[in-house]
Amino acid sequence: MQRASSDKDAASESDPDFAGQRPRCHIPPLTPAPKARHAAALTGVIAERRVRFWASVLLALGLGVQAQAELPALPLDDHAAWQAVGRVNQAGFNQKALCSGTLIGPDLVLTAAHCVQGRNGVIPLSRLHFVAGWLGGDYAGDSAAQRVLVHPDYADKPGPSDIALMWLKHPLEVTPFAIHAPQPGIVAIMGYQDNRPHRLGARFDCQRLSDTQLWLSCPARGGTSGGPVFQQVDGIWHVVGVVNGANSTASLGAPVGDWVLTRMTDAP
To answer: Is Mitochondrion tagged as a keyword (predicted)?
Structure first.
């Protein structure tokens, strides 16, 4: 199991939808760890036991093998409805990185903690940038970061505390998504993947494999970290979590909870 942030030099990736364009970001390769081979096929009590086991492996070891499965590209005709989902770009000397994120306020982005914090603390704000609705060079809005707040329990591992808020220097003219605590039932995940960094990937048929964690049947790959977990509440799509770990059979997310609800009203 690995974090789903981009673990390759994205400039070396070839995006089949936008050949010849160069993405802006990468993250150094992650150290391999055991792979969850069966999570997507498990059900009932056996599923819950194995999910708990692999969740403990993920939380103990943190990182894993590169995911080979990917999210299908979102149809171009549907892209406008999801423009609040965007890329969290990180750039610095000899380093570029790609994550995903979602506007939950005009100037507020929900993403994964490991997308905005390194081993030495929060990444300098001058290196963090959000681009909403990125599609092959077109976008709905963009801004540099003004402030970052990481969950206080984050410990450099995927899981429920790998979540962060990023305030932007200026609000974007993009309708943000509302947030909600996750409920039982089907969810969707989205993100910009390292093999297709110029087009949003999405799945709308993800099963929750655990009642206690946001462990999902949909696989993802590098770049998806920080991307939203969506769920329909009263017929309206809400952000209920953030993707922060994935392999070729499953993904793990941090649920929207009290910390997000309390801190999102802070002044930037």
So the answer is: no
User: What architecture is the 1-15+23-268 domain classified under in CATH?
Assistant: Beta Barrel (2.40)
Helices (H) and strands (E) in the chain, counts: 2, 14
Q: What's the predicted TM-score (pTM) here?
A: 0.78
Output DSSP code: residue 135: B
Residues ≥6 apart with Cβ < 8 Å to 51 = 39, 42, 209, 210, 213, 215
Question: In this structure, what DSSP letter does residue 208 have?
Answer: B
* CA 145 centroid distance within chain: 17
Q: Are 234 and 204 in contact (CB under 8 A)?
A: no
d(CA 115, CA 206): 23
The tens digit of pLDDT for each residue in 168-226 reads 999 999 999 999 999 999 999 999 998 899 999 999 999 999 888 899 999 988 899 99
3-class SS of residue 215: strand
Q: Which residues contact 254 (CB under 8 A, 6 or more apart)?
A: 112, 151, 159, 160, 161, 162, 163, 214, 241, 242, 244
